[in-house]
Amino acid sequence: MSRDIKVKKGLDLRLKGEAEKTVVDAPRSKTFAIKPPDFHAVVPKMLIKKEGTKILAGEELFFSKYNEAVRFTSPVSGTLKEIVRGDKRRILEIVIEADSENSYKDYGKMNASSASSEEVKNRVFESGCGAFLKQRPYDIVANPEDEPKAIYVSAFNSAPLAADLDFILGDKKAAFQEGINALKKLTPGKVYLAVNKKVASNLTDIQGVELLTVSGPHPAGNVGVHIQNTDPINMGDRVWTVGAEDVSIIGNLFLTGQYRAERTIAVAGSASKEQDRKYYKTYIGANIEDLIGEVNDEQTRVISGDVYTGLRLSNKQYVSFYDNTLTLIPEGNNYRMFGWLPFTYNGIPSMSKTSLSWMFPNKKYEVDTNLNGEERALVVTGEMEEVMPLDVFPMQLLKACMTGNIEKMESLGIYEVIPEDFALIDYVNTSKLEAQEIIRLGLDLMITEVG
Amino acid sequence: MEWIRQRLDKIKEPFSKGKKFEKYAPAVNALDTFLFVPNHTTKKGAHIRDAVDLKRVMITVVLALIPALIFGMWNAGYQYLSQIQAEVGFWEALGHGAIKLIPMIVVSYAVGLGIEFAFAIFRGHEVNEGYLVTGLLIPMIMPIDIPLWMVAISVVFAVLIGKEAFGGTGMNILNPALTARAFAFFAYPTYMSGTKVWVSEASDVDAVSGETILGKLASGNEVAYSSMDMFSGLIPGSIAETSTICILAGALLLILTKVGSWRIILSGFIGAAIMGLIFNSLGGSFPDNDLMNFEWYNHLIIGGLAFGIVFMATDPVSAAQTTKGKWIYGFLIGLFAVMIRIFNPAYPEGIMMAILLMNVFAPTIDHYVIQGNVKKRKKRVKAQVKTA
Which of A78, A170, A337, B113 might form a disulfide with A98, Cβ 3.0–4.6 angstroms? Predict the structure, then answer.
């Protein structure tokens, strides 16, 4: 079964520095790290406290303080090197010095299709694969006690320069299929798989899913768009989403009994070295030094993830848990004389017609991180709606979040959105409003007030 | 450029964080960012940002105003000189208008920006660029002979009561420029209406008539202007409102750059045309009412209607914010503007009142548009409860 979704509103930004479609093995990182801040709202409780302890890949590192069933395991085998803490002793990174070869903790093989739901669920959560399941509303790690009404997987990442997930899964199809079989046991509803309609997909023959063929500009690949077009979230609903490559990790768990946290990472962006722009096979939490070496971070912004939603990294830090892309773009810490004059500096892409860049729809741009202005009051209207394919009023919802008006947030559809849906609004809005942050804070408020 | 930058950085030093004049930083920053787009980089959220910023948007509106401004300046001189001498030179007319108009613009900017800067320092935020447009609009919609101190007081009222009292840029309910005009209109009616104010020197020189077409129609006098005069703007009126051609040129820039909402502009004209047509068809029963029998298309090109719809109604802050809401808002402005013209002889021009009225109702329009979305959501929940 397949279903078409046509996205009309949005923005495709063509950027220089796409990753070449060749997969290579990354040199084995000496250290890997799991970063608890990647799991929003999880308060980590360490299981292994002593630095220097030997651990296997798939062995538990920590669990969520408020829900012991949510467990997080080590992506590689080695010794616990360091627990990096920040303010108020908040754990920032758990660094593992990796063995040269992984040795795995054995969870035992299981046939996901014939096992019971209970067994599948237990296996997924005890192995740490529960971290891959993310719950909507709120965009947080799923709660094992819930039964989601549907599960969504998107193999279409429409963000500029983002890794092509469909391509990554090309040689992992068996594991991916088994992962889908397992996910099917976790929900009484459907498992949806979204692919890009414009390219020939590797995944059209995956069994047991409702296939969504999506076309249109970014954010066409965002799960939020797919949910709204198939089975919108209402108050009280729980929907889970899983990253495409994560499905194959879950699949491998059932096929081999091992937690193989393999991660393929695309290095892209105009500030990356041309020979580096490839897909690298490594494990979750890889050190970026092994992929891109050392960069001058005065001049280069290293982003784990895509340019809209990613996390800024410094030298020798680690790729975030869920990310398949490492983007490098130049920093924009320079002044532009009279840069506010309309129709000047057309080399900077702009959705606004006050720049002439719309005349060159096929040009590929090199973007930097300059804010191109300063934060101002909300004045211009209508521009947010142009990049918001969801059926919500973005500006009104943002204002409701800013004022913390819970009733209004609910009626305007806060349950249907997560920060990434507002990433394009971050980008286009004239007032330089931090829309993603406002939505995140709004969702956090909902978690504490409504739950 | 490098050299200027270094000088600026030096000047700015005592205003930086923790230094003596830190409090006054917004004022210096406002001047600095006028020369250079700052080197700020993204700290959170999306790592890349669009090239557009508020300054660019506001400057685009200022550019769109330029044709009407220049024409208004020239027309101010022409209307006066053509009544007292046979031949009027281009520079002569422009010069006469410039001497009157430029001081008004200077006063408007000086007073308005002064208040804006003071509030930015007082409240500790950056100076918003909105006043760049408001400050130019205010003199453009005044009669040419209004004393400068009245301009100044109107500006003070508009910025303090119309804008800052509501929380500053982005929060105001009424269009600030129209608030200034409405204030002057009610505070100094003899300078803002009647038969003597719409042409330069008309109140002092007896030979010069200073009546607008709408004024003539309302009092039943003969109108000696052709439709072409009205369209090109060779008629008396507020300084920059007369030339429909120049206003449409500005409208074109606003629409092409998407800075002004084409929905509001289009629906505004449609609303005015429909109201004009309705009255035209009723006009047969009231042969004495000249305004009713005035052709509907002429209604669109005289008075401030075109200027108001293109430059005032499209102010995004005080207009409706939803797409559907914009259609309704613009349509009703056009409708009411012509209706007030015809029904209320005290206000020969209705566009100012129509826009201010719809400014007040814009949030209500939006509310009902948004309720549609909210209801859809509630219905979904209900349907789910039923099936479960």
Answer: A78
pLDDT of residue B123: 86
For residue B37, give the nearest of A336, A353, A354 by CB distance.
Answer: A336
Cβ distance of B168 and A377 shorter than 8 Å: yes
Which of B44, B53, B257 is nearest residue A340 as measured by Cβ atoms? Answer: B53
Any chain A CB within 8 A of the CB of B252? Answer: no
Q: How many residues does chain A have?
A: 451
As for the ipTM of the complex, it is 0.89
Q: What residue segments make up the domains of chain A, in order of their start?
A: 333-366, 371-449
Are A208 and A191 a contacting pair, CB within 8 Å? yes
Domain containing residue B288:
55-372
Strands lying side by side in the sheet with A279-283:
A23-25, A279-283, A262-268, A325-330, A300-304, A311-313
- Quick one: what percent of chain A has pLDDT higher than 70? 100
Is residue B341 included in any domain, yes or no? Answer: yes
Res B387: pLDDT: 67
Residues 6+ apart with CB under 8 A from A21: A164, A167, A279
Contact predicate A169/A175, CB 8 Å: no
Give me the mean pLDDT over the A116-145 stretch. Answer: 92
- For residue A19, give both structure tokens: 């990753």
Mean pLDDT for A283-292 is: 91
| Residues 6 or more apart whose Cβ sits within 8 Å of residue B25 | B15, B16
Write down the pLDDT at residue A1.
61
Encode pLDDT of A387-438 as tens digits.
999 999 999 999 999 999 999 999 999 999 999 999 999 999 999 999 999 9
Structure tokens at A451: 């739950």
> Taking the C-alpha atoms of A289, A293, A294 and A298 in order, what is their torsion angle to the nearest 10 degrees?
-100
The model's pLDDT over A34-55, given as tens digits with 9 standing for 90+, comes to 999 999 989 999 887 788 889 9
- The predicted pLDDT at position A189 comes to 92
Q: Closest Cα to residue B80, out of B226, B198, B1?
A: B198
The domain tally of chain B equals: 1
What does the mean pLDDT of chain A come to? 91
> Three-state SS for A269?
coil
Provide the pLDDT confidence category of residue A29 given band limits of 50, 70 and 90.
Answer: confident
Cβ pair A310:B171 closer than 8 A: no
Poorest-confidence range of A71-75, A135-139, A262-266, B288-292? Answer: B288-292
Contact B53 A432 (CB under 8 A): yes
d(CA A346, CA A348): 5
Tell me the two tokens of residue A432.
Answer: 């330089």
- Hunting for tokens 């409090």 — which residue is that? B23
Distance of residue A6 Cα from the nearest chain B Cα, in angstroms? 21
pLDDT under 70 in chain B at which residues?
A: 387-388
Distance CA B5, CA B7 (A): 5
**Which H, E and C letters describe B4-31, residue by residue?**
HHHHHHHHHHHHCCCCCCHHHHHHHHHH
- The reply to whether B38 touches chain A by the CB within 8 Å rule is yes
Q: Which of B50, B206, B157, B241 is nearest to A308 (CA)?
A: B50
Neighbours of B8 (CB within 10 A): 16
Q: Can you tell me the distance from the alpha carbon of B24 to that of B64, in angstroms, rounded to the nearest whole number? A: 32
Contact between chains at A354 and B37 (C-beta distance less than 8 A): no
Beta strand pairing status for A300-304 and A325-330?
antiparallel
Contact at CB, B128 and A435, closer than 8 angstroms: no
